[in-house]
Structures are given as structure tokens and as C-alpha cells.
Amino acid sequence: MSLTPVPVALKALLDSVPGTTVAETLPLAQCAGRVLAGDVAALRTQPPFANSAMDGYAVRADDLSSAKELRVIGESAAGRAFAGSLAAGQAVRIFTGAPMPDGADTILIQENAGGVGGPVIRVLEAAAKGRFVRPAGLDFSEGEVLLKAGRRLDSASLGLAAAMGHPSLSVRRRPLVAILATGDELVLPGEPVGPDQIVASNSFSLAAIVEQAGGQALDLGIARDDHDDLAAKIGKAKTAGADVVITLGGASVGAHDLVQEALKRQGMALGFWKIAMRPGKPMMMGRLGQMVAVGLPGNPVSSIVCGHLFVTPLIEALLGIPDPARDRSEPGILEIDMPANDEREDYLRAELALTIDGWQVTPFAKQDSSMLGILARADALAIRPVFAEPANKGERCRFIRLR
After folding, report:
1. In the predicted model, is pLDDT for residue 256 greater than 70?
2. How do strand 396-401 and strand 330-334 relate by DSSP bridges?
3. Domains along the chain?
4. Cα–Cα distance between 31 and 39 in angstroms, integer?
């Protein structure tokens, strides 16, 4: 079977998504990090009235060019407007955010007003008409669409939604991603480790990637190298209504690599198997009814790299985030010489350093796909395209930031 190029594999994976998750309405306080299911329009105008941007005096600009003294006839504060109207030669004491009185068109800031005694101020420096006045609707107007569907809600967008008058929002349900580690050699952290066993780590890493991308991880535990155990645990993913099932390990060609056959027995239609990338070659994808099935390699680094390259875009597609297949790489400068590459696209664990010329990218000397220590130190994945020519220190490269 020929190797599937990375862009082709990603397109096939995203094309397999049956649609976005359903919408649900949540209180605004529970919407941080969620993705909007529809456009959001303002329910009100902001600000709803003209108000002062500074502490000072609400005045008429025409008075400032001729009059040197103005009579103060009242006060306007936030939440407590001046009820009257301003006439020639008059001023109203005003504070930041307070409504502009009728008849006023300018703010004389308090630094430019001197006291004469009693309710009289002296104009020390004139101000142009409209100076320090925020007009009604300066920020937005009622009915204006300010947040688009597919927007991930952060602090700024949540504050905007509140200011627009929305107590709740329609957001996409978080995709449920079932994660199944496989292999007789695996034990959970804290359990006794036999002489031929290792501690399972991939499921924790993939769960973190899923949660950070906006999904909800469901840990199915460890399935032994047994068709019945695999079938039972895959069945749990179906019963839970998972949108995605991710298997870890057992996707290669060894005698104990049973995952692909187990998934096929459950009804999976295979989309692709084996990708032209390093690490991550044994990855596979298929559809199991409405559930997307993703088989990731057992090597820890391979599964995490595939998680960044494929699982994150998959979850974004389920959430309706625009352009999940977008190029996530950035330009950098190689800090070491690199040999020519073969038919597999390389994703090298690398450190980053910011220089005046841009990001300096230094791949680690050791790149074994079992070495989590190096991956934890890495800032990025340096990309070496298929059949890339040798590259010298100082040449341009592309990298994908890990954090």
C-alpha cells in the first residue's frame, strides 16, 4: 500500500466529518472556550447615549471661544444624569461615562478649568466641538452582527456578548472523543510494572490535545491484544455516542496489531492507512457509522505529533470553526545544517529562540519517536518536506508551534 501524503490524509479526514455537533444554549458564564453555533447581533446600542470620556465640564464649544467664565448649574455622573438643559454661558460638572446634558457638545477637561469662586469656572484653554465626547453608538448599534458563527469565545468576545445584552449564547456541543489505548504491554501510572511492560502515557497526552482543541475526552482504558476485549471497548464508544474514537497502538503490521481488523469487524470503512510522515506513518482513519475512527501509532511521540496535525483540525471541523485545514506553520531560520529528506515529511522536535531576524529553529539531535523527554522540551515541530534538498544553517524553514 502506498503512503498517503499528509495534505491528502488531512483532507480525507476532514471530508469524513458527517457535520458539526448540535447547538446548545448555555449561560454566558459557562461559555468560555466554547464555539458559537450562530451569528450574534447586538440587542442594544452601545453607548446608548452620548457621554463624557473625561472628568471635567459639559459645555458649548461656541462659549469657549468667547467666554472666559462659565456658570456651573449642576452635575452629571454615571447613572445619575443632569435633568436640565444647558444654555449659553453655562456649564455642568461631569464625570467619565456620565450622560451629556441637552445643549452641551464639548467637554472642558478639569485641567483646563480654573476656579473663580462660587459656581463659576474660568476657561483656561478652549476645546473644539465634540472634544472628549463619546457619541451614542460609538461602539456598536442595535442589530449589528458583531460575533460570527465558528468564533471561539475568549475574554474579549464574552465581554462583548455581555455588553450586547446577551445573558446566554448558542454554542456547539463539545465533540465527544473516546480514547482507547491498546496492548498487553501497557499498565496505568501507579500500577505495578512487570518486566515486559511499560506505563501507558499516550491516552493522557491525547486527552489533553482533545480538551485544548475544544473536545471532551472519554477514557476507555486499555484494551488487551484480544478481539473480544477490543470489540467490547469499541462498543462502549458507540454506546456513549462518541463523535470520534481514537485508538492508540496496534495499527501497524505486527502479529499483535489487531486494531484495524477489530474496527473492520465493527463495521469500519477504512479511509486510509499509512501516511508519508515521520513520526506517525502507521496512522489510519475510517468511518464507523456516524463516528470517525482514528488509529494512531503506539509510540508516544508519534501519537502526539499526529494529535496536533490531525486530531486538532478534526475537532475544529466538528465545532464548525472556519478553515480547519489551514496552514498552521510559521517561518523560521534553521540554526543547524540538515541532510536531504526522503519520501516521508519530517516533523522534527525543535527549540525556538527569537532573534532580530526571526525565529531561530534548532532541531534536537535525537528524534526517536519514543522519547517523551525531548518532546516535552520542544517548542515546535520543524518541518522537512518530502525529498527536501540538504539545507544549511541560516536557511529558511517552516515550523509548527507546540505551545
Report:
1. no
2. antiparallel
3. 6-21+173-319 (3.40.980.10), 23-46+139-172 (3.90.105.10), 51-134 (2.170.190.11), 330-401 (2.40.340.10)
4. 15
